[in-house]
Amino acid sequence: MTGTAQLQTYDFAGGEYNFAYLDEQTKRMIRRAILKGIAIPGYQVPFASREMPMPYGWGTGGVQVTASILGKDDCLKMIDQGSDDTTNAVSLRGFFEKTAGVRTTYETSEATIVQTRHRIPEKPLREDQIIVFQVPIPEPLRFLEPRETETRKMHALEDYGLMHVKLYEDIAKNGHIATTYAYPVKVNGRYVMDPSPTPKFDNPKIDRMAALQLYGAGREKRIYAIPPYTDVKSLDFEDYPFEVQKFDMPCGLCGAENVYLDEVILDDKGGRMFVCSDSDYCEERRAEGHTGPMAADPAAVHIGGGKQEETDR
Amino acid sequence: MKAFQSEDPLLQVRNVTRYYGDRIGCANVSFDLWPGEVLAIVGESGSGKTTLLNCLSTRLAPTAGAIEYRMRDGAMRNLYQLSEAERRLLMRTDWGFVHQNAADGLRMNVSAGANVGERLMAVGERHYGNIRATADDWLGRVEIESDRIDDDPRSFSGGMRQRLQIARNLVTQPRLVFMDEPTGGLDVSVQARLLDLLRRLVADLGLSVVIVTHDLAVARLLSHRIMVMRHGNVIETGLTDQVLDDPREPYSQLLVSSILQV
Ligand SMILES: Nc1ncnc2c1ncn2[C@@H]1O[C@H](COP(=O)(O)OP(=O)(O)O)[C@@H](O)[C@H]1O
Ligand SMILES: [Mg+2]
Ligand SMILES: [Zn+2]
């Protein structure tokens, strides 16, 4: 986050642009929204979201946040569903390589800024790192209360009974809290926030994280933030406490336990295995010599080279 | 019905007036409501009953006048000087509001149990088992079978929806309940059952009620006192039996003789 280069221009898609695509005035506006978000952890700050040269579903909110905090010396990691080489991650990384000329990396520990959709890296983030989330729907109360005027009032008055109505319905219908993604949290004992669309598996990582967390929703024009070491509590009932997903087996490739696993189909005969969703974490463990139960399987080795793309949801 | 008794009024209404542009909704309405009292507001369609009820329940700000309410701590408070947070707390703990159209007072896309449990969760109850047990108990009290607890109100009949709305309001043991034509739009036999239920609950819980109705039979069955409205004004007030059996005002006489009843 050192000084941005204001004089140099960058070619992108046949045009000339300022460093990181956005003009400096827009970046200042977004940084003001970010600072306000940091001052009021979990509060959704409205901002004048700009048109970006990509569709909304691609994370334009996260891209604008990243563009606004990016400096020439930053090193960027771009992940989607835990992986660095899905279409979405590849094209957003390419966007910043072209428009800002910054270094990029697959390695979590090397990055100064991690932009993500869906996952938080398994390796704990540090104080000198920032994680930027691409958020599709920032309003956790939207499910039961579609009126924006009303949800704003509910946040202002800390009137959050509805969140528990949603969890009550979950238990009544499924016997347990079935929400697995976008699981609502209370930030710093005050604002209820949607960590969407990360799996609830990652909610404990959000709690008292050393790195600054920034959330950007482009279509909905909202930015929110969680400063380092902020208490973040997942909502629950006394008799149905919050729990993360548990996996019965370790990663097939690297043997890691207590990490988030994706199911991978190996062949058309029903062969399948579970592997780390965080592909960088998995590769690093394998490089260190860790192996999982499927590591010797030829089909698995092929998969381990790079996971197949997820279809866009 | 047996008369209520208590020294201090629960609600004090003074000169409440509401205009819609230059049209009068209600004008210069004043009365006291006592703990345990059921007051019926009667009159033809368009006479200002709903406007007055909405002013009393802080759903519609009056153009002029004052409404004071005795809070649980005994202090009288001007309702329109409460903060939004105080007002909301009042509306979901100490008060109830039963709409004529149950869909206006229910969440149609969540289960009956969640509809009843919502107020409990809003005031901080965080034990699922307790919330469910309380909801189940209240469904029983409004004669809804336990096995409907996970069904949503879209699958309920009109009478059941209305009973569910009542349970949803009473679960926090409010002291004052507002009702706007609670039996309107229901079949006659369904109305009778609902009225019996309301009468029993109001007596058992010692509720204060302000009920709006154009149906004098409803007023006769439920209320201690009646206010007759016409063109936005209260033209006669008195004990229910007295107003219905021996009305003073010519308009009330017409109303009671059912010439005006539709
Ligand atoms: N939202 C409104 N805008 C304008 N006039 C209204 C509105 N609501 C009610 N009124 C008028 O106020 C008067 C009283 O209406 P209302 O309180 O609904 O009577 P009631 O409930 O006795 O049928 C009527 O003349 C009605 O047309
Ligand atoms: Mg009316
Ligand atoms: Zn692995």
Layout of strands and helices, then pairs:
The complex is a heterodimer of chains A (313) and B (262).
Chain A: E1 10-12, E2 15-17, H1 24-39, E3 45-46, H2 60-69, E4 75-80, H3 87-100, E5 103-104, E6 113-117, E7 130-134, H4 148-156, H5 161-174, E8 185-187, E9 191-193, H6 203-206, E10 212-217, E11 222-226, E12 232-234, E13 261-265, E14 272-276, H7 279-287, H8 298-304
Parallel strand pairs in A: 4-5, 4-6, 6-7, 7-10
Antiparallel strand pairs in A: 1-2, 3-11, 8-9, 8-12, 10-11, 13-14
Chain B: E1 11-20, E2 23-33, E3 38-42, H1 49-56, E4 64-70, E5 76-78, H2 84-93, E6 95-98, H3 102-105, H4 112-122, H5 128-141, H6 158-170, E7 176-180, H7 188-205, E8 208-212, H8 216-222, E9 225-230, E10 233-239, H9 240-245, H10 250-256
Parallel strand pairs in B: 3-8, 3-9, 6-7, 7-8
Antiparallel strand pairs in B: 1-2, 1-4, 4-5, 9-10
Notes on the protein architecture:
The complex is a heterodimer of chains A (313) and B (262). Chain A contains 8 helices and 14 strands. With 313 residues, chain A is α/β, with parallel strands linked by helices. The two termini of chain A are 32 Å apart. Chain B is of the alpha/beta class. Chain B folds into 2 domains: 1-94 and 175-262, Rossmann fold (3-Layer(aba) Sandwich), CATH 3.40.50; 106-173. Helix content of chain B is 37%, strand content 24%. Chain B is built from 10 helices and 10 strands. In chain B, the strands form 2 sheets. In chain B, strands 6-7-8-3-9-10 form a 6-stranded mixed sheet, with helices on both faces. The longest helix of chain B has 18 residues, at 188-205. The two termini of chain B are 26 Å apart. The site of magnesium ion has 2 residues of chain B, from helix 1. Magnesium ion is lined by residues 49-50 of chain B.
